[in-house]
Structure formats: C-alpha cells, structure tokens
Amino acid sequence: MNMENDYDVIIAGGGPAGLAAAIYSARSGVRTVVLESLAVGGVAAATPVIENYPGFESISGFELSQRMEAQAVFCGAEIKYARAEKIEDGEIKRVALSTGEVLRAPALVLATGSEPRKLGLGGEKELLGAGLSYCATCDGNFFRGKTVAVVGGGSHAAASAEYLAPIAKKVYRIHSGKLAVADGVENIENARIQALEGNPLTGVKLALPNGERTLELNGLFVALGYTPASELIKGLVATDGNGYIICDEKMQTNKNGIFAAGDSVKKSLRQIATAVSDGAIAGQFAAVYAKRFKNLTATK
C-alpha cells in the first residue's frame, strides 16, 4: 500500500465548509487532506465584498478564502489541487482523482457545495459584483436606498424580495408566471428577462405579453434556486428530492464515516457563516471517527 495516499480524513471540496472542516480535523491530530479542483474558497472566493462574516466589517471573498486556506495549512492539513472523480464506500473510503491518484481514508467529508441557477444571458458572469447578485442576504446592504429587482417565482425569490423591501428604495419582482402580492414589492408578471444592460448594471430588457420594456435598475438579484453539486455523491449517501445531502446533528450522513458540510447539505440558510459552522462540526466528528477506527483496527 502506498502510504503517501493514505489519510485519516479526506475532505472533498475547498470552500469555506471544507476549509473549516480541515482546520478542526487537522487540529485534532489526524492526517487530513482537502481536495479542490480549481481554487480554494469556491463561490465565496468570487464575492467582491463580504460584510456579514463575524469579525470582519468588510473583506473580499478572495482574502477571506486565502486566510482560511493558510490557517488550514498551518494546522497541518494538506491541500491537493485535483478533482475527485469517483468515491467508493467501505471501511476505508477510496477517492479516485483526476491526477490518477487514489486516496484512502476511514473518514470522508463531502463539502462539494452548490451553485445558484443562472439566467443564461450574455454578460451575466461579468456583471457579478457589478450590479448582479445571487444572494440578497449577502449583498442587499450594498443597494440601500436604490432600485432593485428580484427574478424568480419560488420561495427563495419571495424571501429575497421580502428581505430587500425595507432596505431598497424600490423592489420589483420579475417572474414568467403569476406572483403573490407582497408588501413593499411591485410584481412584474408574465415577464422574461431578455438582456442585461450596462456595466455596471443599469437595467434589464423584459419581454412581456404586450411587447418589450426596459426596466431601469441599480441591482438585480437572481433567485432561481440552487443546484447541489451532487454528481460525485449520487447514490453514495441519502439525499432529499432536490439532491441535498441529509445529515444528523454531527453532520454524519446515513453512511458510517461519511460526513457532509456546507451548501450541498439540506438546510434553510446558505451563508459562509453557516458553511463554516457545518465544517467545524463535520471536521471534528470525522476526526473522532478516524481515531476510533484506528484504535479498533490496532487492537484486532
């Protein structure tokens, strides 16, 4: 057996949840590795300004992610920049990487995250942080006293509009169907966004039953829901109908030694703070599981 590929805890995903898990796991004295295919921080790293993470009045997502990574490494965790392509369950979990390596460990933390559903329009990526956001609770305060719109017809969009109503000067809600009446929100029904205008964003072009309309805006909040990054864990652990991982209070899934944390987990609020909380719990109990496993196998 190649010892270089053997760990106590493998963490799939290097976002805030995965890095927090790494800090708690490594500090517990077990050999810990974090797998990240692109750059640490995940979606959080691409957030220009964060003002609701405890301890920082204002910090960029990139800087916060870099600090988390540095702390995880300081605590003894290893970061591998590779994509986890296949996971095999068992007493020892096996994770095949895009590099051709196979890592083994008794404990695994799934911190694969989720992604907001996109509009699929030109300029959407470039406007992120320049008038376009996927998170009202993260970025709403930047639009205090300004005109904004929320696009979406589900509960996530309704909650976003409700959150923005006392903050913004004017809140529109855009949807392709009918919408319930909400205080402080003007509904634009049977409408579809055709194009994003300006950089920074100055408005959107709408397609309506009776023609087109240009809606002038300072900000647009896309609230079409999230898609968990569940391809890797499909069939591995129990998930809900939307593909989110189901965990207990120790962030353990229905499989022994497999834990989960962050935006891929079924929960009511997806923020950096809640991801870090999940990660701390998952990392701590994954380390406990790995230690118990080593003690049991040592006595056999």
Question: How would you sum up this structure, described in words?
Answer:
- The chain has 300 residues and is α/β, with parallel strands linked by helices.
- It contains seven helices and 18 strands.
- The strands form five sheets. Strands 3-2-1-7-18 form a five-stranded parallel sheet, covered by helices on one side. It has a five-stranded parallel sheet with strand order 9-16-10-11-12, covered by helices on one side. A three-stranded antiparallel sheet has the order 4-5-6, with no helix packed on it.
- A hairpin with a 2-residue loop joins β14 (203-208) and β15.
- α1 (16-27) packs parallel to α3 and α1 (16-27) runs parallel beside α7 (272-299).
Compute the number of strand runs. Answer: 18
* Largest sheet, strands/sense/barrel: 5 strands, parallel
Q: What is Rg? A: 21 Å
User: What is the CA–CA distance across the termini?
Assistant: 19 Å
Produce the secondary structure layout.
Elements: E1 9-12, H1 16-27, E2 32-36, H2 42-45, H3 61-74, E3 78-81, E4 84-88, E5 93-97, E6 102-105, E7 107-110, E8 114-116, H4 124-127, E9 132-133, H5 136-139, E10 147-151, H6 155-164, E11 170-174, E12 186-188, E13 192-197, E14 203-208, E15 211-216, E16 219-222, E17 226-228, E18 258-260, H7 272-299
Helix pairs in contact: 1-3, 1-7
Task: Looking at this protein, list some descriptive labels.
300 residues, alpha/beta, 5-stranded parallel β-sheet, elongated
